[in-house]
Amino acid sequence: MKRYQKLLFAVISGLLLWASWPLRGCSALIFIALVPLLYLEERISKGEKGNIFWLSFTTFLLWNVLTTWWVWNATPAAILAWLLTAFFMSTVFWAFHFTKMKLHNSRIGNFLLIPYWMAFELLQYHWATKWPWLNLGNVFSTSTTWIQWYSVTGVAGGTLWILLVNILIANLATYERESEKKALRWNLGAVIALLLLPIIGSKFMYKYYEEKGEDTEVIVIQQNCDPWNEQFDSKSYNKTIQKNVDLAETLVTPDTRFIVSSESAIQEGIWLHDLKHVKALEIIGGFIEKHPKSCFVIGGTTYEWVPKGMENDFPARWLSGVNRYYYAHNSALLIDTLNVQHRNKSQLVVGVEAIPEWMGFLKHFTITMGIARGTLKTDPYAHNMSFGNHQVGVAICYESAFGGYVSEFARKGADLLFVITNDGWWGDTPGYKQHFEFSKLRAIENRRCVARSANTGTSGFFNQKGDVIQKTEYWKEDVIKATLKANTEKTFYSKHGDYLSRIAMWMTFGLLFATMVLTILGRIRHGKR
User: Fold this and answer.
1) CA distance 424 to 442
2) Of the candidates 412, 493, 492, 421, the residue with the CA atom closest to the CA atom of residue 450
3) I need a surface site. Which of 187, 191, 338, 350 has the fewest CB within 10 A?
4) E-assigned strands of 47-177?
């Protein structure tokens, strides 16, 4: 195969990955998207010339840029994100290739890609440059009747499904001898069964699943403030909060329990030790006094003093006016007649809300979006907020992409899930649409209804099967209401989180160790000769 033909195959894989991705793509294409790249790997592993790292880098860079080009609208750091993610992906693919060459250079060896890739996706949830947006299992957010079994496996089950089918299809091209016809038929049968059985099983689950829980009336507000020109303007702070209250007033009833508004809606700046002098809380408190059976869930920027002895904590910031260190948070607040509860965002957007510690020289500088500076202080774990007999889990923006993290809310007793976000940074692009889709996956994984409030994206309600009950239009001030089922039963996934990915991680450690040992032994034997 000539060099340009290899490059063409790599490009085809990248285009297929992009063409399968929500929302304009066809998700079924994901089942063949990796086949051209796997075909290249097979030929190179059999001795044909070619650099599998750079070929796979071509595939993954193309996929990243075409699918998430809209990140550029929020930050020029998008270029670094595309390059780093493609580099990590191609490193994983190269590691699989190297291990296959050492351990089992055959069709069976192709299955070694599975633990490597699934372990990488788990790392995408935890390391400094977190970016689970393109984890393969997310692709089925537009085909929710295919993946009702995510309540057992989570998104990782979708990744496993995709990899298995791609590998089996790629293996079909390697049967050449007449004597292998029987094995070919078995492989073809396995492909068909693996494609159809999960879909058929999911269709039955979808048909017969009945929503559980107490009826709970929830209002969602889409305030529609322009984040570039209006939301962070100090002159608009109280106007924005009054708009929220006025919109809620149009739909609130004695049965309303929750009014959900967006991330960062309160920009007045809330010092957690002094809540009495915050005008926004006064305005919302006046509304709650009129409707004491309801509470307000809303996002805001909060601050607190750094405890003594913690001044060297990386997120600590210096406040020159009072010569003290403080923390800044992106918080969710629950405001009722008794108190103000809050939780701080744990999963931060790298380059916007967080700077890796090895880039500490940028700690006190604005690097993106004109407002983000340094690193926010996070909560170490997910925790719920309570109102009446309800426990609610509130995911802030990017957190809704982290399936295992959101499952912590359900595991700890949340009967409803809320997502509060501000998707206006990206403009009218696929970004806010893709983000909207994650709420479907979280609903299925945990069998929890989800209420989603976006400042300037799309807001909506989702039932426990991932169906969209109601949604708003883009760039339109709106308020909507729905009755959701507050479910307390825990799914298998809610109880155990990303167990498939954890198993893959341990398998990867074993494979890497075996590869290292065989490489060393091979060099020793070669040296003796």
Assistant:
1) 22
2) 421
3) 338
4) none
Q: What is the pLDDT along the chain (529 residues), one digit of tens a residue?
A: 899 999 999 999 999 999 999 987 899 999 999 999 999 999 999 999 999 999 999 999 999 999 999 998 877 878 988 999 999 999 999 999 999 999 988 889 999 999 999 999 999 999 888 999 999 999 999 999 999 999 999 999 999 999 999 999 999 988 877 667 888 889 999 999 999 999 999 999 999 999 999 999 999 999 998 876 665 565 667 889 999 999 999 999 999 999 999 999 998 889 999 998 899 999 999 999 999 999 999 999 999 999 999 999 999 999 988 999 999 999 999 999 989 999 999 999 887 788 777 666 666 654 444 444 578 999 999 999 999 999 999 999 999 999 999 999 999 999 999 999 999 888 899 999 999 999 999 999 999 999 999 998 899 999 999 999 999 999 999 999 999 999 999 999 999 999 999 999 999 999 999 999 998 988 888 776 5
Using CA atoms, how far apart are residues 459 and 477, in angstroms rounded to an integer?
10
Q: What's CA 114's distance to the chain center, in Å?
A: 20
Q: Give CA–CA dist 483/320, Å, rounded.
A: 49
Cβ atoms of residues 134 and 401 within 8 Å:
no
For the domain spanning 214-496, the CATH number is 3.60.110.10
**Could you count the other beta carbons within 10 Å of the beta carbon of residue 138?**
21
Distance CA 200, CA 442 (A): 21
SS3 of 275-343: CCCCHHHHHHHHHHHHCCCCEEEEEEEEEEECCCCCCCCCCCEEECCCCEEEEEEEEEEEECCCCEEEE
Residue 528 CB contacts under 8 Å (≥ 6 apart), including other chains: none
Tokens for 379? 């909560």
Tokens of 279: 């005008």
**Letter for the amino acid at 205?**
M
Domain ranges of the chain: 3-209+498-528, 214-496
